[in-house]
Specification:
Length: 205
C-alpha cells in the first residue's frame, strides 16, 4: 500500500483548481520519470478538485493502479490524496479531514483569497505538517489505529468513479486538457502521450 500525494486545492468562484500546498512521494519512480509524474500529480489533483462540488467526497480510479480521493469543503478549498488502490478508503478520508481542518484553523480563507486569479506568494500558506503526514500515513494500519478514536466515516457518501473522464464536464477531453495545461511542461506532455500509447505507468492514463 502506498500514499503518493497529499494536496490542498483552492476552488475559486470560476471553478478552477489551484494547488496551495502539497507533498509528493515519487521515490518509487525512476529518476527520469519523477519530474513528469510530479507535474501530473498536481494536474490530476487540480482537475478533479475543481470538478468536485462543495461538501462532496469522491474517489477517482485510474486503471488498476491509482486512486485519487477528493473532499471539497464548503469553505472553498479541497483536499486530495493519491494512493494505490489497496490503500484503505476510510484512512484516506480521515487524513483529508485532519489536513483540511488544520489548514482552515491556521489560515484565514476569505472571499478575496478564493477569487484571486493566482496563488498567494506568501510562503506561510504552505502546511509544514504535510511532510510528516505523508511519512506517517504510509502505513495505513498504524494510522488507522490512531484514528479509531475518531468518528467512523460514512463511506456510503463517497462517490466512486472508475476514470478521470467520468468527472469531466460533458464534451471535455482529457487529451485536450493536457495539451492546454500551462502547469505541464512539453516534456511532461510528451511523457503523457508516450505512456498512453504504451499503456504504461502514468497517474492519469
Amino acid at each position: 500500500m502506498k500514499l503518493f500525494y497529499i494536496g490542498i486545492i483552492r476552488n475559486n468562484t470560476k471553478g478552477e483548481g489551484l494547488e496551495l500546498a502539497a507533498v509528493k512521494d515519487v521515490s518509487g519512480f525512476s529518476f527520469f520519470e519523477r519530474s513528469s509524474v510530479t507535474q501530473f500529480m498536481s494536474f490530476f489533483a487540480d482537475t478533479v478538485a475543481s470538478r468536485t462540488n462543495p461538501g462532496q467526497r469522491q474517489s477517482v480510479q485510474e486503471g488498476t493502479t491509482y486512486t485519487g480521493h477528493v473532499y471539497a469543503r464548503t469553505e472553498g478549498i479541497a483536499g486530495v490524496v493519491i494512493t494505490d488502490q489497496e490503500y484503505p478508503v476510510r484512512v484516506a478520508y480521515s487524513l483529508l479531514n485532519k489536513v483540511l481542518d488544520e489548514y482552515l484553523v491556521k489560515f484565514q480563507v476569505t472571499p478575496a483569497f478564493l477569487s484571486a486569479a493566482t496563488k498567494p506568494n506568501e510562503p506561510q500558506y504552505a502546511l509544514e505538517s504535510l511532510d510528516d503526514y505523508i511519512k506517517r500515513y504510509q502505513d495505513p494500519q498504524q494510522a488507522d489505529t490512531m484514528l479509531k478514536v475518531q468518528q467512523e466515516l460514512d463511506e456510503t457518501k463517497i462517490v466512486l468513479h472508475k476514470t478521470i473522464e467520468s468527472v469531466l464536464d460533458r464534451g471535455e477531453k482529457l487529451d485536450s486538457l493536457v495539451e492546454k495545461s500551462g502547469a505541464l511542461s512539453q516534456t511532461s506532455k510528451l511523457f503523457y502521450s508516450q505512456a498512453k500509447k504504451t499503456n504504461s505507468c502514468c497517474l492519469i492514463v
